[in-house]
Structures
1.
Amino acid sequence: METHCGTDLAGGPGILLAVDEPERGAFFPATARQALDELGRVRVTTTAALQDLGAFGKTMARVEILVSAWGFPCITADRLALAPRLRFVAHAASSLRSITGPDFWQRGIPISQAGDAMAPAVAELALTYSLALLRRVPRLDHGLRRKGGWERARKIPRARELRGARVTVVGASRTGRAYIAAVRALGAEVRVYDPYLPPGDPLAPYAADLATLLPRTDVLSIHAPGIPETHHLIDAHALALLPDGAGVVNTARASIIDLDALYDEVSSGRLDAALDVFDSEPLPAGDRWTRLPNVLVSPHVAGATRESRLRAGQIVIDEIRRHLDGRPLEHAVTPAALARMA
């Protein structure tokens, strides 16, 4: 289904808003939608309506600016041929790997993404999880709910405060930096592992290799991209270096941690964990992670807050304005940058 909106259907560039509900309304509530409509001739469609090549061609024939998010089909050479007027893509989500390939990049169409909008939200959940693990919240809650809970819960190993805790951050990404700022504000001692950190970076003095950092870690928080170089970066050997009672927080990509190895450590009671991402999603009912008393889990929603969606919508609007005005984009992505992104 496709609808036409905008104040002047005769003028302005053709803009296709190809974002499904409920995310469309989350990105573009009434005021943001009005701002988008003022930038050109906005049409709205669903991602399901664009999967068929014929339907794709009919919809994209006059589109100059595409606003995409999750579920948009990969823009292959066949699809590019059906979108001859396409001049700019504003991706309201973060990862571009599912919609871009070599054909897209060869065409040279500028593209931006709104990943910056999610960084504060992801960092906040990672902070929440870090505090919860240090304060033994999963263990205390589970213990209190069991028979003889009060005394059982009171015997759980003493909690720790974030102030003075040794926090190791894997990945000085935008989410990693937002998390670092948050935990430092509460007094944590932060160290960083990121082989791409430039020498002049403010975090460089706090960087070291994993073999040095992990044995001195109370909370390990993952903020790296899910790329081949980070696959199972935190494996059984790395996990074994963590001291007893340490917590592992992952709000980034599941592939960075060997989750089987982590499960062995957590199920033994030696480590605690808080996970927003998993090797297979969605988790089936009764999954092994949901049955452990020292684990917090959430369904891949770290970046999905009301505020993050509003920020993303505003980034899209601002980027379209910059494109139309001929100004440099603030959130542009290049093939080189994509290689280091999730």
Note: Residues 162 and 188 are 6 Å apart (CA to CA).
2.
Amino acid sequence: MSIREMLSLHPERDGEVNDLLATAARHAMFCATMCTACADACLAEAMDMRQCVRACLDCADICQATTRLATRQTGDNARILRALLELCAHACEACAEECERHAHEHCRLCAKMCRECAQDCRSALGSML
């Protein structure tokens, strides 16, 4: 089952789904997991990776919150969701920039996921105007 399918089943939505928002929610969920895994791998590195760990964990928390709010269909809180999508894009970009400073493969993969998530959040923002 996909997030898109779950959202389409909500009684108030009558099968209608904002596909860009569903994609952003899905990728934010993946990004939170990738960032958490990267932070954990950074902790095991011999060099000082504190800033990367911080960027990854901050991003993971924001991505998780974004997923949770983006999948809520009852009522409306569009102003807060738009602000969170924008924050998520900024957090993902900051995390990607930090991860790109390191030659570790886990950081490379995390940065790639963060860039994709930031792009998806911005696309979702455009669909909510």
Note: The chain has a mean pLDDT of 93.
